[in-house]
Amino acid sequence: MNDQRRIVIAGGGRAGIRTAERLDDLGHTVTIIESDEDRAAAVADEYVAMVIQGDATRPSILEQANVAEADAVAALTDDAAANLAVCMEANRIAPEVQTLARTATRDEAEYTDIVDAIILPQQEAADTAADLLSGEAVRTVVSGPELNVLEIEVAEDAPFAGRTLADVALPEGALVVSDADRTEVPDGDTRIEAGERYLVAVESAVADEVRLLFRG
User: Fold this and answer.
1) Burial tier of 109 (Cβ tally within 10 Å: 0-12, 13-18, 19+)
2) Of the candidates 193, 215, 211, 189, which has an alpha carbon nearest to the alpha carbon of residue 202?
3) Cα 26 to Cα 130: distance, rounded to the nearest angstrom
4) pLDDT digits (tens, 9 = 90+) for 148-167
5) Which of 101, 122, 193, 211 is the most buried (most CB within 10 A)?
């Protein structure tokens, strides 16, 4: 695992609380900002994050959440405009902080000057957001209810490291879809090199097994 990170999440709805749970499981420190008083109280009862009740677009609330000392800020409310406003204000307070916003459009180029990454409402936001925020070596590129595409960095001591696809046994429901250079579809002679990243399509039922094979 990477070093512990401090992450601020704006929005205590389904996406926010599930992302916080995932990050907490990974050992990171999370603060959630939620404007609704009742929802903030409910989130606090989950014991996965420190909770601040307030409007995350307000500088005073972000300062209360100590954004200046955070590694990342994720704006995951249902209001795309508010999410972008949160990220812009977070960048003003802490120019080096990593930002992620939940938006309504896939056009990432439109927001490159505002945020570091975006996710869409229809994505499995918790998995995608946690992967992007945690700095982990596995990133969810495409997420669905039964099928995901993961970008996985191969660990030095992973069971698959240094072996060709012909020599390894992927579980049924998993497929390596790109070589390390993203230049061709892999075949049996493709070698899985430690330190390189591969795109792997996995059914949800075998995702954990695939992560173990590539990460050890």
Assistant:
1) exposed
2) 211
3) 9
4) 888 888 888 999 999 999 99
5) 101
What backbone phi and psi angles, to 5 degrees, belong to 110? -65, -20
Kindly report, residue by residue over 184-203, the tens digit of the pLDDT: 788 999 999 998 888 899 99
Burial of 84 (0-12, 13-18, 19+ CB in 10 A): buried
CB 149 within 8 A of CB 201: yes
Q: Which two tokens stand for residue 27?
A: 């050992």
Q: How far apart are CA 52 and CA 78, in angstroms?
A: 18
- DSSP labels for the chain? -PPP-EEEEE--SHHHHHHHHHHHHTT-EEEEEES-HHHHHHHHTT-SSEEEES-TTSHHHHHHTTGGG-SEEEE-SS-HHHHHHHHHHHHHH-TT-EEEEE-S---GGGGTTT-SEEE-TTS-HHHHHHHHHHT-SEEEEE--SSEEEEEEEPPTT-TTTTEEGGG--PPTTEEE---TTSSS---TT-EE-TT-EEEEEEEGGGHHHHHHHHH-
Instruction: State the DSSP code for 112.
Output: T
DSSP 170: P
Sign of the C-alpha dihedral computed for residues 152, 153, 154 and 158 taken in this order: negative
* Strands 191-192 and 163-164, sheet pairing: antiparallel
